[in-house]
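A reminder before we start the practical. When you read a complex entry, don't treat the lines as separate problems. The point of joint prediction is that each chain is placed relative to the others, so the output describes one connected object in space. Small molecules and nucleic acid strands, if listed, are placed in the same frame. In the example below there are two entries. Take a minute to note the order of the lines before looking further.
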Amino acid sequence: MLRVAHYINQFFAGIGGEDKADAPFEVREGAVGPGRAFAMEFGDDAEIVQTLVCGDNAFHADPEANLEAAVAALAESKPDLLIAGPAFNAGRYGLACGAIAAAATEKLGIPALIGLYPEAPAVDVYRVRTVMMPTGDSAGSMKDAVASMAPMGLRLARGEPLSPAEEDGRIPIGYRKAVATEVPVAHRAVEMLLAKLKGEPFESEISLPEGAEPVPPAPAVDDLGEATIALVTEGGLVPEDNPDRIESSSATKWARYPIDMLRANTDPAFKSIHAGYDSQWVDADPNRMVPLDALEALRAEGVIGGIHDYFYATTGTGTTVTHGERIGGEIAKQLIADGVQAVIVTST
Amino acid sequence: MIEKAGLPAAHLTAMTAMAKLAGANRILSSGLIPHPVGDPTRSHDEEVAWRKGQVQKALNAVATPLDEAMIFPDW
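Here is the predicted structure of the whole assembly.
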């Protein structure tokens, strides 16, 4: 029977949600949470021998130490495969899965598999370093994720070679493997060109990455002492009644609020409606997300010319790239219309 | 998108790699995930002083001409 190790976060381990995101790295014997679903799917072919657990914030607070602990645990249990997640569209969890999967393969030669939503942030960071199966964007698709990951995992555990990503139903690793073909490349290219000219369907042999296009840097501010600075955040900081109904995840909206209102921070007080981090510290002092007190002190010293009358907020968790780009573009347009010269953005 | 529109934007975050991936240009490592410009382990006055320092670094970043995206060293 093949032996499988599994990595999950504090939520899937049943420790708790954001309030337990500081849960330290630990190793448990056997299957935990989604590991039980994998065990069912594996049947007699494989067993989960070990589950590695770490809180989402705890992992990123000291990734090196946590990776070291994970590698040490795996070196001892010597599994045939490491499965991480599935982490769906999660940011921190997905990145932790990627880091641990990559370390297992690179440091110990253990094949590894992650389940991720194809638009999840960890996909572009780790796709070249570990095998990934696509999943839905939330834990609601757990059943399907396990059903597609388990057979791929067994193949990896047995040391079977990968087929092209499309055939395997995998997220492409992003490199091309050379294969011998009957038709030389020049002929294929001309056939493609002819098909294109005729308006017929054809399939390119090159796929372009979907990461963010580099943005040419904006020109620097010449004279900070004359500049008006604006504050922008994706941290979900809104008046406590959330008058604009900004979503707590997968945002489609943004809003701006007067900085006078933020300075007063009473009737209404400000709080974060962001569902992707524990907001207790920001709720206690919104300056920890939108640093108005610090900026006002610097204005008083003449370091900057002025502070824009509003700060801008949206929620940056589970937000699609399409909405994110639109929101960013709309905020930028407003800032320029209002004569702002530079921006300080904070994000979780 | 703010930089794309021509305004320099300093991005303070604990997750600098993700900021780079998302296309930010002036990136500064700051704080922890739940409070990028907060440090609840300090006294209030010390925290405000620290935050002022972080904001000063962000201001330096928007005043720095760049050719390409960069994670600023923690001066």
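Discuss with your neighbour: The first strand of chain A starts at residue 2 and ends at 9. What might explain this?
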